[in-house]
Amino acid sequence: MSVRPGAPKRKILVPEPKSKFLLIICPNCGHKQVVFSHATFPVRCLSCGALLVKPRGGKAQILGKVEAILG
Fold first, then answer.
1. What is the DSSP letter of 10?
2. For 33-52, what is the mean pLDDT?
């Protein structure tokens, strides 16, 4: 939903979360893994142990390639 600058803000009737689950590909080994977009703990690859997600206070920094947004 795009809002014009200066237009009055409308009340959102049904609030939806801004966080998503992401399917990420490891840059080292190519393993696919599902992670949370607002992760609060570092996420490592299950097969090679490389760091995939760094927590950053709100939205996490994604270090791998995002293949799909799951919801």
1. P
2. 92
Cα distance between residue 25 and residue 34, in whole Å: 9
| CATH code (residue 37) | 2.20.25.100
- Residue 52 domain-assigned? yes
Handedness of CA 23, 29, 52, 48 (dihedral sign): positive
The count of domains in the chain is 1
| Confidence grade of residue 7 (pLDDT, cut at 50, 70, 90) | low
The C-alpha atoms of residue 19 and residue 57 are separated, in whole angstroms, by: 13
Place of tokens 């590909």: 25
**Domain extent at residue 29:** 21-69
Residue 11 structure tokens: 């009340």
Tokens 């840059």 belong to which residue? 27
Q: pTM of the entire structure?
A: 0.71
In a domain, 12, yes or no: no
